[in-house]
């Protein structure tokens, strides 16, 4: 069942379509871009947006998420971070960028 649009809805839709037509750019057959007057006015009155430089992600700061860390103490051996088992004192490398927690879980399950 099709519902007919009221005259107010038709007028509203028509005005929205006309606004969109006025604000879009047109390209003719010679590939020349023609910018409408409303677009030119908007470009002149709008403030320029600042482009921020790409920033590197900083290293994660805060608490460790895995529950395995309750069973290991962390420390440094030279400049390398290490994890030491609280029960048997076994030492593992624990640099976050290269070592995950799978080895530590395996240690707790089968070796400790």
From TrEMBL:
Q: Which domain of life is it from?
A: Eukaryota
Sorted alphabetically, the Gene Ontology BP terms of this entry are: regulation of transcription by RNA polymerase II
One GO cellular-component annotation of the UniProt record comes to: nucleus
Region of interest (Disordered), ranges:
1-31
Q: Which residues form the BED-type domain?
A: 63-112
List the biased-composition ranges (Polar residues). 1-17
Which SUPFAM superfamilies does UniProt cross-reference here?
beta-beta-alpha zinc fingers
Alphabetically sorted, this entry's keywords are: Metal-binding, Zinc, Zinc-finger
Q: Which GO terms describe its molecular function?
A: sequence-specific double-stranded DNA binding; zinc ion binding
Protein name, UniProt field? BED-type domain-containing protein
What species is given as this protein's source?
Answer: Panicum hallii var. hallii
């Amino acid at each position: 069942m099709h519902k007919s649009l009221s005259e107010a809805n038709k007028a509203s839709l028509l005005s929205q379509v006309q606004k969109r037509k006025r604000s879009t750019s047109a390209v003719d057959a010679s590939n020349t871009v023609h910018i409408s007057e409303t677009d030119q006015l908007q470009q002149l009155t709008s403030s320029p947006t600042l482009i921020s430089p790409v920033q590197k992600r900083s290293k994660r700061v805060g608490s460790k998420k895995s529950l395995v860390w309750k069973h290991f103490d962390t420390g440094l051996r030279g400049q390398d971070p290490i994890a030491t088992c609280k029960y048997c004192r076994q030492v593992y490398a624990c640099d976050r960028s290269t070592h995950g927690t799978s080895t530590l879980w395996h240690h707790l399950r089968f070796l400790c």
